[in-house]
Write a structure and sequence with these properties.
Blueprint: E1 5-8, E2 13-15, E3 18-19, E4 23-26, E5 29-31, E6 34-41, E7 46-48, E8 51-58, E9 61-63, E10 66-73, E11 78-80, E12 83-90, E13 95-97, E14 100-102
Parallel strand pairs: 1-4, 2-5, 3-6, 4-6, 5-7, 6-8, 7-9, 8-10, 9-11, 10-12, 11-13, 12-14
InterPro entries: BacA/B
Family: Belongs to the bactofilin family.
Organism: Novosphingobium hassiacum
């Protein structure tokens, strides 16, 4: 089965939530939450809403929380919101205004262990 993906061009502006089982490439603007397998965001793109994706590669502006398994924040990205992730890469020059939290899955040891 061929991989499928959807592209929202620079001239596309959407108000409302997006749910995609395929990969999503956003170059336009979205006002709403995005849930998808993999998200690629273009440099001139603006997303206002929460992002949930197995993987996300962000290079535009995001106003909202981000939850991703593999997250790449490129140098042109401007993130305004909290970020939770499994694996994280941030290019030098990226701007993030929010908290970072590594997700802990069932069966994993917590990141912090108290010793008396």
């Amino acid at each position: 089965m061929a991989a499928t993906f959807s592209i929202l061009g620079t001239d596309v502006s959407i108000k409302g939530d997006l749910n995609a089982t395929a990969d999503l490439h956003v170059d336009g603007s979205v006002e709403g939450d995005i849930t998808c397998a993999a998200l690629v965001q273009g440099e001139k793109s603006t997303i206002t809403g929460a992002i949930r994706a197995q993987s996300a590669r962000l290079s535009g502006t995001v106003h909202g929380s981000i939850e991703a398994g593999e997250l790449v924040i490129l140098k042109s990205a401007r993130i305004h919101g909290d970020v939770s992730y499994d694996a994280l890469t941030i290019e030098q020059g990226a701007q993030v205004d929010g908290k970072f939290a590594h997700r802990v899955h069932a069966g994993e040891e917590p990141a912090l262990t108290l010793v008396s």
